[in-house]
């Protein structure tokens, strides 16, 4: 286990500068999986360097895709359906729920057997949300407790299309079913009542898949995919740490360039603006759904977060809870029971972490309540990330407004999504 001590000397520090964050993790996983199926050579620039995406990269290589990284960091994938066959060894997805769920759908369309397994946290994450629809498609897929938990065993092939209404708003499930649909007989439709991130649809369009979109529904048919070149934009979930850091730390101003701000990802910006934060977009490019996001320190007021906006900010709740700690008044996060089945039970982990630095919080079955203490520093303390990268980074930001150092245990988890976080922290905090 490694620990990160934020401070001493951090209290009173300001966060300043222009930065870029790693390539978007959700886009990176999908780009690799589609490039592996595309007939030819695809080039991916700005791929996430986090461990989660590295697991997906190794997975497609085990299935037979050619993967090379050039001196400029661009990743070339030599793909094609005839190249792909059953891997010799168990596929290790590490800590990545996105990798295992997307791979389950993707591998269901490839002849042969594969086993998908990961770390102790993955072994606790629900998989019936993907095994059930894939079985309805004729997929032969199983796992611990009748397919409810990993490891998963997938015997690919024999799929037919279905018309599926998502029982939980989940872009991972939507993605898994659509990826399986590429290899299923007939049409596969996924319907959603609450919109979720649209990366799978966007990338399917990019590689000329036979896809049809209507409000609340996406339909895909078996397709021969065209290879593609993609410049993966910065991850808004990583940008959010710097944006909140600037909002809560006196004297701060940051800009994060070339960030994805497309559908289902930018909800944290709306919440911060609702709290009164000075957060603005510039260099908006509608073709790539990217923008620069700037933020400055200023007073924040509590707000209520819930309902249909939750999927658009679900990964940002730990850092928004830190913003709420610095606000005047109370902030409630509701309709977010999904947080209990993330890399940790994120409701419990965030509540315990904030309480450890003196913030008054309440745990709710579907969220949490944070009593803001505007103008009053947090205390120092010791927190345990519980192996959850987003909680670890959120607490490093919280430490900026603490009177004494904050020690964050299980800091190594940060590498799953943002291996250069500490470097950026040292550079931007002064
Ligand atoms: C993701 C979707 C979300 C999100 C996760 C990444 C994706 O999960 O929390 O970090 O890339 O599709 P759910 O699909 O469980 O909502």
Structure explained in plain terms:
This protein is α/β, with parallel strands linked by helices and 430 residues long. The chain folds into two domains: 217 residues, Enolpyruvate transferase domain (UDP-n-acetylglucosamine1-carboxyvinyl-transferase, Chain); 207 residues, UDP-n-acetylglucosamine1-carboxyvinyl-transferase, Chain. Strands 2-15-17-16 form a four-stranded mixed sheet. Helix 1 packs parallel to helix 2 and helix 3 runs parallel beside helix 6. The chain binds shikimate-3-phosphate. The site of shikimate-3-phosphate has 10 residues, from helix 6.
At a glance:
With 430 residues, this protein is of the alpha/beta class.
Descriptive tags:
26% strand, UDP-n-acetylglucosamine1-carboxyvinyl-transferase, Chain, four-stranded mixed beta sheet, 30% helix, 430 residues, 13 helices, single chain, binds shikimate-3-phosphate, 2 domains
């Amino acid at each position: 286990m490694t620990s990160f001590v934020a401070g001493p000397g951090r209290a009173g520090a300001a966060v300043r500068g222009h930065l870029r964050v790693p390539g978007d993790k959700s886009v990176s996983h999908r780009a690799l999986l589609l490039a592996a199926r595309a007939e030819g050579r695809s080039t991916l620039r700005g791929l996430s360097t986090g461990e989660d995406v590295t697991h997906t990269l190794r997975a497609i290589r085990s299935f037979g895709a050619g993967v090379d990284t050039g001196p400029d960091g661009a990743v070339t994938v030599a793909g094609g359906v005839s190249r792909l066959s059953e891997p010799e060894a168990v596929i290790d997805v590490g800590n990545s729920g996105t990798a295992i769920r997307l791979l389950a759908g993707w591998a269901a369309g490839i002849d042969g057997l594969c086993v998908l397994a990961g770390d102790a946290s993955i072994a606790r994450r629900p998989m019936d949300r993907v095994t059930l629809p894939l079985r309805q498609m004729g997929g032969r897929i199983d796992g611990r407790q009748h397919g409810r938990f990993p490891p998963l065993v997938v015997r690919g092939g024999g799929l037919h299309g279905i018309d599926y209404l998502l029982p939980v708003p989940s872009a991972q499930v939507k993605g898994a079913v659509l990826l399986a649909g590429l290899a299923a007989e007939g049409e596969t439709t996924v319907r959603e009542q609450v919109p979720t991130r649209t990366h799978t649809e966007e990338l399917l369009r990019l590689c000329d898949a036979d896809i049809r979109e209507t409000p609340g529904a996406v339909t895909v048919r078996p397709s021969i995919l065209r290879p593609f070149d993609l410049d993966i934009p910065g991850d808004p979930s990583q940008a959010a740490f710097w944006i909140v850091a600037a909002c809560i730390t006196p004297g701060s101003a940051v800009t994060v360039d070339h960030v994805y701000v497309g559908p289902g990802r930018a909800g944290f910006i709306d919440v911060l603006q609702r709290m009164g934060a000075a957060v603005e977009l510039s260099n908006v490019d509608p073709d790539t759904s990217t923008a620069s996001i700037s933020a400055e320190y200023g007073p924040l007021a509590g707000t209520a977060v819930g309902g249909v906006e939750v999927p658009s900010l679900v990964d940002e709740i730990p850092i928004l809870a830190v913003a709420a700690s610095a606000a005047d008044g109370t902030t409630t996060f509701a309709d977010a029971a999904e947080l209990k089945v993330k890399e940790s039970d994120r409701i419990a982990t965030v509540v315990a972490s904030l309480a450890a630095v003196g913030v008054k919080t309440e745990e709710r079955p579907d969220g949490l309540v944070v009593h803001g203490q505007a103008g009053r520093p947090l205390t120092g303390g010791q927190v345990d990330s519980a192996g959850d990268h987003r909680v670890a980074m959120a607490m490093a930001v919280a430490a900026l407004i603490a009177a004494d150092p904050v020690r964050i245990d299980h800091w190594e988890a940060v590498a799953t999504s943002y291996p250069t976080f500490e470097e950026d922290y040292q550079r931007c905090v002064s």
